[in-house]
């Protein structure tokens, strides 16, 4: 993978100018990478469309190629063709070069067990927004009959001496990744699998749709139970990825924070309803069209809100950070209770340095206590506004926090230097070009 020159990893931003214009959002980062892994289940060709040019796609392509899979990426067209007719065991040292680059490699476990009889998973990366353990993933794999060997220093070695077989699995928390793990590992298992306490995010439902196209038997009940009847084999798929509702909401928040007006082509209402309700409560306006959604600040005061992040259909944790920047411009006290990750408010410190008034609390400031109650995590934030923001030197901490810092720099008066912006390439396609198209003063 290309290394990043630190000199070129800085964005100079002069804020204080409303963002205005039109940008296009393509497929969801948190679906596309999983659909690419699913292609590994079938000894055939799969075609995924509406794929954004983001670093996670590059990481998964590299990992697939290391396993002998042919991957052809047409970035402009947004088409990825994956030919998994032949698969081979990757060299552990090669796989290891990808360690720390993403959380997706753990999802290779099931597909590799079917195709190769064993899997080596490198140490995982992803945003540092909490401890992010993988205990649910490993418990699930063990219940399905896998043997997990964590002795290996650089990663995990997984085998299934007697093959994978259906099982009854319950997730203590509706984890997105562990639900996807179960789907990808159980579709070809012998017999039936019942997964209770599953996550049902739209990105997961799109993965279920892909697996159904491939020949899988999966049903989803209203009570978060997913039933999978193992089948003997799967075939390749052709599928168009659902749009990235996190990226869409990020641009919507940018419009609100900068007093702007942004048409997000590709954004779709159904999976964004919870966000749209909150956006409207704050005082933002939107207009839903067939091909996208226009978001704008109508003038006047923005209103404070109290929100809690949650699993679907709740308010997404990934929507929280960009919106907090807009809340620094609302008149009064807003409260955000983060219930998905224990440590997702680190990004607020630079905002405070820029002039925001944000206080973090260990208590659950929400309607119900969450998993982090009585524990030592600052997982509630109180934001008092409106506060003018001043430009600053900011180091990007993680993907969503980093995009929020960009929004803050664009909202602030005076120049900012946002360092480490290549982290944002993990999930925001062409964000520099999009900012220019929206009239941002960046260099
Ligand atoms: N958890 C465990 N054990 C596990 C797995 C999860 O305790 O084995 C905990 C996590 O620590 C966390 C909670 O369960 O507190 C939820 O984690 P989940 O497994 O749902 O998250 P994930 O699959 O690791 C995906 C997205 C995240 C998004 C979350 C929640 C991808 C690649 N990542 O992560 O996206 O925040 O679901 O919707 O799909 C992002 O895009 O910036 C991002 C972080």
List keywords for this structure.
443 residues, alpha+beta, UDP-n-acetylglucosamine1-carboxyvinyl-transferase, Chain, 29% helix, globular, binds uridine-diphosphate-2(N-acetylglucosaminyl) butyric acid, cell shape, Enolpyruvate_Tfrase_dom, RNA3'P_cycl/enolpyr_Trfase_a/b, EC 2.5.1.7
Write structural notes for this entry.
This protein has 13 helices and 23 strands. It is α+β, with helices and mostly antiparallel strands. It has 2 domains: about 5-25 and about 245-440, UDP-n-acetylglucosamine1-carboxyvinyl-transferase, Chain (Alpha-beta prism); about 30-240, Enolpyruvate transferase domain (UDP-n-acetylglucosamine1-carboxyvinyl-transferase, Chain, Alpha-beta prism). The strands form 6 sheets. A 4-stranded mixed beta sheet has the order 21-22-1-23, covered by helices on one side. Strands 2-14-16-15 form a 4-stranded mixed beta sheet. The longest helix has 13 residues, at about 200-215. Uridine-diphosphate-2(N-acetylglucosaminyl) butyric acid (EPU) binds near residues 30, 199 and 246.
